[in-house]
């Protein structure tokens, strides 16, 4: 892993803006729409992943859902065809991802982890939720019983 470039941060900002442009109007009609939240790409890391090469992996918080997101680290890489599927292997396990388009030229791989954020009180709470998500998916899964106190 290495630090993101300013260009990659700009691209992640555009990811949130693209979600807003593509989905906000429809999202406002959903009963679990949370007007306190905005689309925000958070906690992204640049990772070299088997079968995928250099990817940006992180969370996209929206007013209705929380996504695990993967997109090529290099903006020149093609946008995946909408509906295509792949498996993202992270230290915590394997995640089924689906390609989605956010506008004409921006797309990503996503897995919707939470589809109702109505109870999230603030953008800071949503950010903490994204941090917790990324901490969990980027750490190896514990074996059953691992880390639990020993019986005496």
Widest β-sheet, arrangement of strands: 1-2-3-6-5-4
Name of the CATH architecture: 2-Layer Sandwich
Count of DSSP strands = 6
Distance between the termini: 41 Å
Shape: globular
Write down the domain tally: 1
Relative strand content: 25-35%
The Cα radius of gyration reads: 16 Å
CATH superfamily: [NiFe]-hydrogenase assembly chaperone, HybE
Helix content: 10-25%
- Helical stretch count? 2
> What's the CATH topology label?
Yope Regulator, Chain: A
Decide which structural class fits the backbone. Answer: alpha+beta
Q: Describe it for me?
A:
- The chain has 152 residues and is of the alpha+beta class.
- The chain has a single domain, classed as Yope Regulator, Chain: A (2-Layer Sandwich).
- 24% of the residues lie in helices and 32% in strands.
- It contains 2 helices and 6 strands.
- The longest helix is centred in the first third of the chain and has 22 residues.
- The C terminus is likely disordered.
List the helices and strands and how they pair.
Elements: H1 6-27, E1 40-49, E2 53-61, E3 66-72, E4 85-90, E5 93-101, E6 107-114, H2 123-137
Antiparallel strand pairs: 1-2, 2-3, 3-6, 4-5, 5-6
């Amino acid at each position: 892993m290495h630090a993101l470039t300013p260009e990659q941060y700009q691209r992640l900002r555009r990811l949130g803006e693209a979600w807003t442009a593509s989905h906000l109007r429809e999202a406002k009609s959903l009963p679990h729409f949370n007007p306190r939240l905005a689309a925000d790409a958070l906690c992204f890391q640049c990772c070299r992943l088997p079968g995928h090469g250099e990817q940006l992996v992180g969370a996209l918080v929206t007013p209705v859902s929380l996504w695990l997101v993967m997109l090529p680290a290099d903006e020149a890489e093609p946008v995946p065809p909408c509906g295509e599927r792949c498996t993202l292997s992270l230290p915590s396990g394997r995640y089924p991802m689906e390609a989605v388009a956010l506008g004409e030229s921006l797309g990503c791989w996503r897995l919707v982890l939470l589809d109702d954020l109505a109870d999230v009180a603030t953008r800071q709470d949503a950010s903490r939720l994204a941090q917790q998500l990324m901490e969990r998916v980027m750490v190896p899964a514990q074996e059953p019983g691992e880390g639990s106190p020993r019986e005496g």
